Amino acid sequence: MNIATITQCPVSTGGFIGAITDWLVGLMSIMGWLGTGIAVFLENLFPPIPSEVILPLAGFTAAQGHMTLVEAIGGATIGSAVGALVLYGIAYAIGANRMRRLFDLLPLTDASDIDKANAWFAKYGLVSVLIGRVIPIARSLISIPAGIARTNLLKFTLLTTLGSAVWNTILVMAGYVLGASWCSILGFLDKFQYAVAAIVVALLTWYVVVKVRSHLQAAQE
């Protein structure tokens, strides 16, 4: 498969991020499922790398016979889980203040990203690890407050793997089914992700309200 052919989509990434994305695309086409795992692993460690490009391309690469569909999904999910665990481990080891300073030093990130992730995790707890995998940027950052809070590693791993598997399957399947037209979903994905995020936030808000009301009623009895 010619790399130039599969990167002709008008993806809105350029410069540094565009160069990284192109390199990851080549990695997947050459190394198959292992390259997919490495690409998704790096995307988890560096949130500005767009999984919305990498995952459909993994599906398209599978459709071209460079790996099976199961290998594409499996490699992506392993990469997601390992990347999340690395971020969890770093946050666990160095704590919130050093993570904030680190994000201030890294390109295209800043300390406010950590603050937003911490606020999200503080509000919704471990369930945010599961649903965060389908929300832009949060899918990587949510591992950080989980590590800072030193949440149960087994629960974190299970929820991360489950959420990653669902999201990866959707995007890899889309690329596999659409084939050379995979890039037609890119514009739709932005709206889809934020629609999912809005629905998730609404459901979580409803859940919190119900729980608070039940506790208040129990206290009054």
TrEMBL record:
Keywords: Cell membrane, Membrane, Transmembrane, Transmembrane helix. It is a multi-pass membrane protein. It holds the Pfam family VTT_dom. One of its GO terms (cellular component) is plasma membrane. Residues 49-176 form the VTT domain. It is found in: Cell membrane. Belongs to the DedA family. This is DedA family protein.
